[in-house]
Amino acid sequence: MWQKKLLGLSLKILLLLGFIYVVSCDIYKSDKSEITGIDKAVCEQFSDSVFVPIQSVPLKQYYPDLTNAQLSNVVSGFVDTLMIDSIFVVQNSQHAYELTLGAGDTTYLAVKAVSGTLTIFATGIVDLNVIGKDGKCIAVSDDKMPLATISGCTELSEGGVMDPIIKLRLAYKVDKGGDLLLQLIKVDQTKKRTFYLSLK
């Protein structure tokens, strides 16, 4: 008699464990997110074979007597000059940019922002500062890399490992857009001086 009860109890426990396993698998599948929106569009841009080449420039190329610490004194004129010389990138460009960092550790590009939120994506790692024409730095409003972007936009590395393509994703609130200055600072994690850049 007790053996039948034990067998019945064992079957109920097995059924309960099986149910929990099936439910947990369904929950895992439903929570798994896919890369979407601007992140997906940028991933497609970075996988493309057409890029707009551009090179950032050091401050001394235009202002030989100034240091980067004195930049705020000349930002407005510097941005205008970079625009005239076509050393600028445009938000929502059809193609991503192939950016080569100019000489030195700190270089610059002008940015033509067209909307209130500017999100900068890159396949390389640098320190970035977005500076308004008033000389003030604009604070980062979002520096979180979505897990879906990390796992959903990858490439096979030389070592046979899947690596994320998008290595930098920073968002800024820039009011209504306008012309800005992008300061790029080479850091220890900067592996190459040429990488892809997209602004959304």
Provide an overview of this structure.
This protein has 200 residues and is α+β, with helices and mostly antiparallel strands. The protein has a single domain, classed as Jelly Rolls (Sandwich). Helix content is 28%, strand content 30%. The protein has four helices and 13 strands. The protein has a six-stranded mixed beta sheet with strand order 1-3-13-5-11-8, covered by helices on one side. Strands 2-4-12-6-7 form a five-stranded mixed beta sheet, covered by helices on one side. Strands 9-10 form a two-stranded antiparallel sheet. The radius of gyration is 25 Å and the shape is globular. The chain starts with a helix and ends with a strand.
Notable characteristics:
200 residues, alpha+beta, Jelly Rolls, 6-stranded mixed sheet, 13 strands, globular
* Beta content: 25-35%
Terminal Cα separation, in Å?
72 Å
Structural class: alpha+beta
CA radius of gyration is 25 Å
Task: Give the topology, please.
Blueprint: H1 2-31, H2 37-47, E1 52-55, H3 75-84, E2 88-90, E3 97-100, E4 106-113, E5 117-122, E6 127-131, E7 137-138, E8 140-142, H4 147-152, E9 154-156, E10 162-164, E11 168-173, E12 178-185, E13 194-199
Parallel strand pairs: 1-3, 2-4
Antiparallel strand pairs: 3-13, 4-12, 5-11, 5-13, 6-7, 6-12, 8-11, 9-10
Brief digest:
The protein is α+β, with helices and mostly antiparallel strands and about 200 residues long. It has helices at about 1-30, 35-45, 75-85, 145-150, and strands at about 50-55, 90, 95-100, 105-115, 115-120, 125-130, 135-140, 140, 155, 160-165, 170-175, 180-185, 195-200. It has a single domain, classed as Jelly Rolls, CATH 2.60.120.
